[in-house]
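Quick one: structure tokens for this chain, please?
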Amino acid sequence: MSDNWVVQNLQNALDTWNDVLTTIWSLLTTSPKNFKGGGIWKAIVNINDGLQAVGLALLVLFFLAGMVKTCGSFAEIKKPEHAVKLFVRFILAKAVITNGMELMTTLFSIIQGAISTIINSSGLGTADQTVLPKSLIKTIEDCNFFESIPLWAVTLIGGLFVTVLSLIMIMTVYGRFFKLYMYTAIAPIPLSTFAGEPTQHVGKSFIKSYCAVCLEGAIIVLACVIFSLFAGSPPQVNTDAAAVTQVWAYIGELIFNMLVLVGTIKMSERIVREMMGL
């Protein structure tokens, strides 16, 4: 690493960004079961098991409410076709609740398979590192002390922007994990609505919303892949321009690409929900 304090200031910001990208890449390829050693997942499983009793109680309630609303009289319930339909609905709803954890993990595994396919197809095992061009480093090192003062101010502002964008991005990805855990923990209650025909739309919306959270990972991976390709072709630096102009042009284009990436990650939930018609 260069001994120049301006180069070090900018490189430290890029190191923070690269560390965040590496962390995000790791998070997107990690199962909730293995996240943070699996301790959180065990707590979520226990909560899910505890709420199954509540879900089964609501199952009966939603089933009776649906039966009353869909059948005009008791005589209709005696009809074989109605009785079989109600019986099958009740059994399926009960199976969904008792096997809700398996259903959720299966849906996640399917989406995770799509994420792995995107990563493998892109040919990127990890996110590419963003590095300073050698020509820019040489230009900065050739500046005297007084010329370095405005460069320091520019890199300080640019480094602050990069650090803030890094924090926003990592918080968004961590937020996806929190949503996955919350959906999995509370699953027995919304899944119990499948017992009644008038309330089944709640269960369908819950499943679609959970799939949307899982698909957010695919959108984030795509955004990181595209950014990595941009990072592999760093901004062109005009070596004939003044040092401040070169640094400002480089930082400006870099921050613009970062803003696009962070904006895409922030809007990943909205993009997926629009795709799924939610």
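The chain has one domain: 5-275.
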